[in-house]
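Loading example: each entry is read as three labelled lines plus one structure line.
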Amino acid sequence: MYFAQLAVNGLVQGLVISLAAMSITLVFGIVRFPNAATGDVMTVGAFSGLVVYPMTGSLLASGIFAVIVTAAVALISHLLVFRRLAGRSVVALLVASIGVGFVLRSIMGLVFGHQPMVFSMPLSRPYRIGGLAINPLDLQLALLAAVMLALAFAVLHLTPIGRQMRAVADNPSLARVSGIRSGRVLAALWVLAGAIAGAGGVMLGVKTVVNPEMGWDMLMPAFAAAIFGGIGSPAGALLAGLILGVVQEMSTPFVGFTYKIALSFAIMLVVLLRRPTGLLGRIEGVR
Amino acid sequence: MLSYLLAIAIITLIYLLLSFGLSLQYGSVGLINFGHVGFFAIGAYTSALLALSGVPLFASFCAAALAAGLTAWPIGLISLRLRDDYFAIVTLGFSETVRIIIVSEKWLTNGVQGVPGIPRLFSSLPVGFEAQLATAGLLLAVCTLAALAMWRIIKSPFGRIIQAIRDNEDALKALGKDPARFKIQVLMLSSALAGLAGAFYAHYITFIIPEQFVPLVTFYVWMAIIIGGVGRISGAIVGTVLLMVFLEGSRFLRDFIPGVTEVEMASLRIGVIGLLLILFTLYRPQGIMGDYTKR
Amino acid sequence: MTFEAVDICKAFDGFEVLRNVSISMPLDGLVGLIGPNGAGKSTLFSVISGFMPPSSGHVTFDGMSMDGMSASARARQGMVRTFQVPKEFSHLTVRENLMAAAPGQAGESLSGLFLRPGLIRQQEKALKARADEVIAFLRLDRVADSSAGLLSGGQKKLLELGRALMVEPRLILLDEPFAGVNPVLIAEIMERIRELNGRGIGFFIIEHDLEALTRLVSHLYVMDQGAILAEGEPAAVLAEKAVRDAYLGGEA
């Protein structure tokens, strides 16, 4: 029962990783670089949510505001930085994304300071379902994530621009030939990636504490999940994030609290060496 | 004042060793190493712990270089099978893992409390100016040797292969040479340099904690080589000096602008670094001293 | 003393590019492979030379299985390939290109570099002499010290041949050595190939230029749509109706 409880806790943690990994995998699959600013975009989301929450007391309102802010931030980073680096080497994009992350972290630090802050949620009695304790807050968070995920998949699968995004991720050369890679698709991609990261940021902020470094610390598990799920595969990222979250939680009694972060690194290494296409991916990570 | 300048010189030279290694990796064989600080940390802890258990400093410094260089070997074997961008992620994960291990294995590293009382270099000299001067002198000699070694590598048959790797890896494979072998050697050498830098750092600061080995350090070094010009010895020097001017200058600046706290300054610093990384990749990717395109 | 590729198949995303292709030749032979564009010649080369794993099939070299060997390991066994689009080391000079290709250099390991400077100087001297021999043999004297990136297409083809020679291979796989080369230089390259073959080096040559190839080789394979269509003595092969239809018909 103890482990079942850990697994349940891990699922919520996993949803955060899933959202971060989806944001990464979308950009990686289409713009072809691992966006190291993803974590800091999440931080921006957490702070944005934190600003709105005391005013409204509504998690949903906080989430919506955060998602709008981070979508805008991601779009701006695309317009000002990443779009101008199109066609440059991966290191240029990678280093620039580190730069973007640093700038965001710096702004958060200057505006909000480094004192850890929390969403002051009203305490509520956990639901008891067959011996499992389920926190209503976790349910709300899971719901929030589900809404974001549903929206993301709806955009990807039901809209023309989403189909074009998936086409580019599936087969870049084919998409290039058909001239899909237009500015509109890329702009939409960044908005979507930013929004997803923002939702993840709010969740992370509610679950833990909000500080300028929080997002950066998510980067490793998020990269691991993106690779584990298969680069360019949002469904893979979702699945891998959940698995990683559960595995991390359930391993804590064995490896301790600190090593659970290293665990995602280990999983990533094994995946890269054994099955570089990940769970659902198609693009190879090995030469 | 003089002693302050010497202190800065020492830190600059330590960073220069880091810059040389990273510059050699990226500039020559195109490795995007985002985990350089991991090797720095391994060097620092190896030498510090050995010295504290009574090993002579010369031996502990060698051990630091060796430990970092040898750690690079499996990392290289694993990672060189991966694409460049995956290599960056894996090395970043490696350096974070190193830090987590340092935090967790308290029996060895004393965890977040850190390792205090690390013996200084030249402890026979009077504490203060003379010992500092001797340390700076030794570091200068090591950096000069490292620069000469880099220069020798670039001008040698090895350098010829390195250029060939940059020009066309497939052609090299078709001729029976394994590009990965050369990359691993470069990775091991520059990691050993980073380990050595870590030893100097530990024995100069005399107190190390895991917080000193965060990824930010790696990106300080990246900033230095990108600003200076990748793959060039002169670029690494210019970039590292500018990095130090910036880091130290921002500290001075705080003394002159009232009301700015150290935390705010740290935020500002990281923002400026970020901005510089963006601006240089956008507008001057070759750095100040020019790109390494021709030997 | 033979080179064999047996039942090589290769499919991309379910699309069969090579279907049960088999090649067999003596290691000192002079064998050609022709076929229209898209016949799978270059894919076959990539599979044989280890740049691409086959979906199935085997490669043996002088009785030794090369299956699963990396491209560089195959080259070290004495089978060196060139590329259709020359892959010169563009920032190195012609001489440096050749010297870089030579195997067994002490200066290629960091330990050797710092511990045995004397040996390296000696080796470099010998290497330079050897490179200059190859340069003279290929008549590249005038451009020996120019950056390889500045050479003409034909000179780059010669340089690739020269680099292959530096490895002292037993078999050279040439990928379209005459493509984009002027007729005078074609005659020159053919002459060099014959001369080298006379010294016992085998050649397996993919070529689009039918006329030049049939004059050069003693045995000819014809590929079409991923399979071997015909093989044998060049004149006889070219007389076959199927070959004329698939190849010459397509050309006309």
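The CA atoms of residues 146 and 160 of chain B lie 19 Å apart.
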